[in-house]
TrEMBL record, chain A:
Residues 28-95 form the RNA polymerase sigma-70 region domain. Gene3D superfamilies: 1.10.1740.10, Winged helix-like DNA-binding domain superfamily/Winged helix DNA-binding domain. SUPFAM superfamilies: Sigma2 domain of RNA polymerase sigma factors (SSF88946), Sigma3 and sigma4 domains of RNA polymerase sigma factors (SSF88659). It comes from Streptomyces lavendofoliae. The lineage of its organism: Bacteria, Bacillati, Actinomycetota, Actinomycetes, Kitasatosporales. This is RNA polymerase sigma factor. It comes from the Bacteria. It holds the Pfam family Sigma70_r4_2. InterPro entries: RNA_pol_sigma-70-like (IPR039425), RNA_pol_sigma-70_dom (IPR014284), RNA_pol_sigma70_r2 (IPR007627), RNA_pol_sigma70_r4_t2 (IPR013249), RNA_pol_sigma_r2 (IPR013325), RNA_pol_sigma_r3/r4-like (IPR013324), WH-like_DNA-bd_sf (IPR036388).
UniProtKB/TrEMBL annotation, chain B:
It comes from Streptomyces lavendofoliae. Keywords: Transcription, Transcription regulation. This is Putative zinc-finger domain-containing protein. Residues 1-44, 196-221 are annotated as: Disordered. Gene3D superfamilies: Anti-sigma factor, zinc-finger domain, dinb family like domain. SUPFAM superfamilies: DinB/YfiT-like putative metalloenzymes. Residues 201-210 have a biased composition (Basic and acidic residues). The keyword Signal does not apply. The keyword Transcription applies.
């Protein structure tokens, strides 16, 4: 069974990129640049390294629009987010390995741990952005606004039971960020 | 406070922990347990299901102190809940504030250039549409970052009519409606659907504002952006052939290639108005694009000057020459990024601007010149350096301001 058929926008965008339409590339950038840049920055914590990954990811997508398989990857958004995490993790591992080699000290395990932490936070960001809006709104209130779940329920106009359910479900989704292997293959 | 689970051992039943003899209450649906009257002094223990439903709120420290205690007691005796609690607590550590850092607006052109270097476009965006592409993208990035209430921030649009500055009040959302209405002139010229039938930028803007929801909100962003994307896409497919296509502004017209530079210019000018209204920094266009905008204004100056002359607002022509011959000229020296030298024919749009027939010189900064053309600064206040025929200088500066409109 195919997953959800991708939205029309994704399909059309893929065709337009394949056709070599520069205007489509501009639209692709306008839609996904902040996703790509924020993700890369979350992993690498460095502005110019994030710029670099942004260049690489859009370059890859522009050169390989056919690599996007909607049945396997889901939305173009999640595909691009995944490519970005992969490339950013790859860059981070390279940069860290170089730094370790120059400074000396530091075990491969420490390096892997650092890479893993960065990869997990980037995945977590994507999960938060992609989760259903009601769950995100509940987490937003409880975590960032420091509202307790009763206040959260009142703010959202739902029962307290529903507020508890949303907070738990939101965190359960977020926790899946921890449960996948880190993929840092270069594009 | 005394928790209901105090003193309970893990081997005791869930409903009867605490060592206090009482009648076990039946489990209730999770959302109505609070309606149960609490026996005095000893609230009933929360059932497993309720405690489990609290795990998310507990992990976020969003429970009451009593519930927190109850959950934590429960965790010592319920392995599945303890395991989940740990996972959810870890997940909380993954939440973090969104980074507010805006994308570097120059990154877009660097990324696109890199892509096109790796694989040339089969259907490129024409060079003359580049400024419009870049400026609409920059404005859109600004709009993405502003809050709902900022869409209603007041903006005063300023321009010149005759020799005086006029203005019109609107909001950030109203400015986007204005841009969309006037961009629609270009859309019409290349055969795209357009909902407004009026012809001049002012009429179209008034019609758009009248027809829009009141007050306009951030909902105006999507249609404006979509129209800009469609314009760029359409001219890309049409290619070279349409560059000279005439775009009517009602009382004048421009070839499409110039019309899109004009729209890019307006987009920047109004983006700057918006940025000022919501207190955001906003940079001028890239040097190459700014140069194109200045060049368009310089090319329009002789006709604007002639029009003012016909209206009796500029000095009469002094030396008419045959069409295409060099005429008396003003040397416009624009400094800074995007700058250059232009020679403006003074006596007739048919004459050619000429270095040899220069009678005056004006030097000013590129952004300042654009502000003059946009009607944002008065002609009397523009131009850092002036030399030569004072009348010519005055006429050209006023003609530059007269290029502005709503």
């Amino acid at each position: 069974m195919a997953k959800d058929t991708p939205p029309r926008w994704d399909r059309k965008m893929q065709q337009r990129l394949a056709r070599g339409e520069a205007a489509a590339l501009g639209e692709l950038y306008d839609r996904f640049a902040s996703l790509v840049h924020n993700t890369a920055h979350r992993v690498l914590d460095d502005e110019s390294a994030a710029d670099q990954v942004t260049r690489e990811v859009f370059g890859y997508v522009w050169e390989n629009p056919d690599a996007y398989d909607p049945r396997r990857e889901g939305s173009m958004r999640s595909w691009i987010a995944k490519l970005t995490r992969r490339q950013a993790v790859h860059r981070l591992r390279q940069a860290e390995a170089k730094a370790y080699a120059e400074r000396g000290g530091g075990s491969p395990e420490e390096l892997e741990q650092k890479v893993r932490r960065a990869a997990v936070s980037a995945r977590a960001d994507f999960i938060v952005q992609s989760m259903p809006a009601p769950l995100r709104a509940a987490l937003e209130l409880a975590y960032f606004q420091r509202r307790d779940y009763r206040q959260t329920a009142a703010d959202l106009g739902v029962t307290e039971d529903e507020a508890r359910r949303r907070l738990r479900l939101g965190l359960q989704l977020l926790a899946t960020a921890n449960s996948r292997p880190v993929d840092g293959r270069a594009l | 406070m005394t928790g209901p689970l105090d003193g309970g051992g893990p081997d005791e039943g869930r409903e009867e922990v605490g060592g206090v003899p009482r009648i076990p209450s039946p489990r209730r649906a999770a959302d109505n347990y609070e309606a149960l009257p609490a026996p005095e002094g000893a609230p009933p223990p929360l059932p497993h299901k309720v405690l489990q439903s609290l795990l998310g709120a507990w992990a976020l420290s969003a429970c009451s102190p009593e519930e927190t205690t109850a959950v934590e007691e429960h965790l010592t005796e319920c392995a599945p809940c303890a395991e989940e609690a740990l996972r959810l607590r870890d997940a909380v550590g993954l939440l973090h504030h969104e980074r507010d850092l805006d994308l570097d607006p120059l990154l877009r052109s660097r990324v696109l250039e890199n892509c096109l270097g790796r694989r040339p476009a089969r259907i490129p965006v024409p060079d003359w549409a580049g400024p419009y592409d870049a400026e609409t993208a920059r404005l859109d990035a600004l709009l993405r970052d502003i809050g709902d209430s900022e869409w209603h921030a007041p903006v005063r649009l300023k321009w010149f009519e005759g020799d005086r500055s006029v203005s019109r009040r609107t909001t950030v959302a109203g400015v986007i409606g204005h841009l969309q209405a006037v961009d629609g002139l270009v859309a019409t010229a290349i055969g795209l659907d357009d909902s407004l039938s009026s012809k001049t930028p002012t009429e179209r803007t008034e019609d758009h504002w009248r027809g829009a929801h009141h007050p306009p909100t951030r909902a105006v962003r999507g249609p404006w952006r979509d129209q800009a994307h469609t314009l760029i896409r359409t001219v890309s497919f049409a290619g070279r052939g349409v560059a000279e296509l005439s775009v009517s502004y009602g009382d004048f017209s421009l070839p499409l290639r110039d019309a899109l530079v004009d729209r890019a210019f307006e987009c920047w000018v109004h983006a700057d108005d918006i940025a000022n209204a919501v207190d955001y920094p906003y940079e001028p266009p890239s040097g190459a694009h700014l140069h194109g905008m200045i060049d368009l204004a310089a090319r329009l100056l002789p006709a604007a000057l002639a029009q003012r002359r016909r209206a009796g607002l500029a000095a009469p022509a002094r030396h008419l020459v045959t069409a295409g011959a060099p005429g008396r000229s003003l040397h416009l020296e624009v400094e800074g990024s995007g700058g250059g030298d232009w020679y403006i024919a003074l006596d007739s749009p048919a004459a050619v601007g000429s270095r040899d027939r220069k009678v005056a010189q004006v030097a000013l900064d590129g952004v300042e010149f654009c502000q003059l053309v946009a009607g944002h600064i008065a002609p009397e206040e523009a131009a850092a350096g002036q030399d030569g025929d004072r009348e010519a200088i005055r006429d050209v500066l006023f003609a530059a301001a007269s290029l502005s409109r709503l």
